[in-house]
Specification:
This protein is of the alpha/beta class. Helices cover 32% and strands 21% of the residues. It has two domains: 4-79, 2-Layer Sandwich (GMP Synthetase, Chain A, domain 3), CATH 3.30.300.130; 98-344, 3-Layer(aba) Sandwich (Rossmann fold), CATH 3.40.50. It has helices spanning 4-11, 53-65, 82-86, 98-102, 120-133, 150-154, 196-208, 228-236, 250-265, 297-304, 316-323, 335-345, and strands at 29-35, 38-45, 72-79, 104-112, 138-142, 161-163, 166-168, 170-171, 177-179, 214-221, 241-246, 270-275, 280-281, 288-289, 308-311. Strand 1 (29-35) and strand 2 form a beta hairpin.
Length: 355
């Protein structure tokens, strides 16, 4: 029969996916009782809305059954008190993980839009595909924790699993490595109801606790705006630069300038601007129709002092491929020159942000 002490030791192998520490040291494993072959453990959560609670409960059962396969494990879920939650109000300090020490990532490019609805995630995915077609080893870190869309575009649903060195990311049909919160959820439409510190913690974990191994380029898809996640990425990740994405409207250009200002204040190089949904090409006559009005991209790049790397049209074919999880077979004739221009502008050394 397993003892409470043995169970507690076994539970030190169960990690909180958001905070990156084991549930015993975090004080989340409570009220451990053993009666015959029945074991009961209470898992104290920072919020009952935690989308990974079932995964942690399964990990608890697996760890305890590793001591004795005949044990029947019951995991009760509870919510922490306000006093307990206060301890999780900021990032948890941790040493460099095994995965982070092992990973070798040459260039890290963050894709930023300023506002939603301009197709930033589509551009990030297209860029990853184009770089992969150039022969690069590519990874995509989906930092849009509350609105993830990268896995669906690549037709991915789950991570490969866990290893002693860290989380194994999903791998696309052409070999692009992908990490996203949607790869950890039971359902892809399940809401992630987290406050800022927890969202930022997940991004740090996707960087440090995922076994990316050797990559030539990592693309980081940031959420819109200049929120906690954007700040976390610019502070915590060794960025090579940021790539701005906008659409033709002046409103989009105004908001992307705010994001550019944030990057400039933190000494992050801006590699250039991509205008998405720039035009619709008539399938009959080939004429370019400005569906969203005249382009403001030239004025935006003049204001920012950065190059316009390219214009991507509004194409129903791209939307269809993204919905079908087949973005990797979308024609790259327009995106390939943009990817080449991005590669040419990436500095040799990663930046160190200054607050």
């Amino acid at each position: 029969m397993a003892t409470v002490g043995e169970i507690r030791t076994a539970l030190k192998e169960v990690m909180d996916p958001d905070l990156g520490q084991n549930i015993v040291d975090l004080g989340m494993a409570r009220d451990i009782t053993v009666s015959g072959n029945q074991v009961t453990v209470t898992l104290a959560l920072t919020t009952m809305a935690c989308p990974l609670k079932n995964r942690m409960a399964d990990d608890i059962k697996k760890a305890i059954r590793g001591l004795d396969g005949a044990l029947v494990v019951n995991v009760k879920l509870a919510e922490m008190s306000a006093e307990d939650k206060a301890r999780f109000g900021g990032p948890v300090e941790r040493e460099t993980s095994i995965a982070e020490a092992y990973n070798e990532i040459n260039h890290v490019i963050a894709v930023v839009s300023g506002k939603g609805g301009v197709g930033k995630s589509s551009v990030a995915s297209l860029l990853a595909v184009a770089l992969r077609q150039r022969g690069e080893r590519v990874g995509v870190l989906d930092a849009d924790i509350t609105g993830p869309s990268i896995p669906k575009m690549f037709g991915l649903h789950h991570v490969q699993g866990m290893s002693p060195m860290g989380i194994l990311p999903a791998v696309s049909s052409t070999g692009i490595k992908v990490m996203s919160i949607n790869l950890l959820l039971a359902r892809e439409d399940e809401a992630v109801i987290w406050r800022g510190p927890m969202v930022s913690g997940a991004v740090r974990q996707f960087w440090g606790d995922v076994l990316w191994e050797k990559l030539d380029t990592m693309i980081v898809d940031l959420p819109p705006g200049t929120s906690d996640v954007t700040l976390t990425v610019m502070q915590s990740l060794p960025l090579s630069g940021v790539l701005m994405v906008t659409s033709p409207q002046d409103l989009a250009g105004m908001v992307v300038r705010k994001a550019a200002s944030m990057a400039q204040q933190m000494n992050i190089p801006i590699l250039g601007l991509i205008e998405n949904m720039s035009y619709v090409q008539c399938p009959d006559c080939g004429r370019k129709i400005e569906a969203f009005g005249p382009s403001q991209a030239d004025a935006t790049v003049r204001a920012l002092g950065v190059p316009l790397l390219g214009r991507i049209p509004l194409d129903p074919g791209l939307a269809l491929r993204c919905d079908q999880g087949q973005i990797e077979i979308y024609p790259m004739d327009i995106v390939a020159p943009i990817a080449a221009a991005v590669s040419e502008r990436v500095p040799a050394e990663k930046c160190k942000p200054i607050l």
